[in-house]
TrEMBL record:
It comes from Timema bartmani. One of its GO terms (molecular function) is copper ion binding. This is Uncharacterized protein. It comes from the Eukaryota. Pfam families: Lysyl_oxidase. GO terms for cellular component: extracellular space. The lineage of its organism: Eukaryota, Metazoa, Ecdysozoa, Arthropoda, Hexapoda.
């Protein structure tokens, strides 16, 4: 059986704060990964929303399979969604 384990030491080793303009977070916005306040900026400041900054907690997430079987997601591969912003 697959047994996924989060490498908490890797998170602690790599965690840091980073300020980024919304211009560089458009992919995250399209995938609804930002707080609602970011989307409010987009509607309230149509001409300049992309210049606003957000503070991000960045870290590397390393996931190990400590089990004896391969990890197989429950959703069939043909149903996975790939967003254009990752190209």
């Amino acid at each position: 059986m697959a047994d996924l384990v989060i490498d908490s030491l890797e998170i602690m080793r790599t965690a840091h704060l980073e300020d980024r303009q919304l211009f560089f977070l458009q992919c995250a916005m399209e995938e609804n990964c930002l707080a609602s306040a970011a989307y409010k900026l987009q509607t309230d400041h149509v001409a300049s929303w992309h210049l606003e900054t957000r503070r991000l907690l960045r870290f590397t997430a390393r996931i190990l399979n400590a089990g004896t079987a391969d990890f197989r997601p429950m959703i069939p591969k043909h149903l996975w969604e790939f967003h254009q912003c990752h190209m």
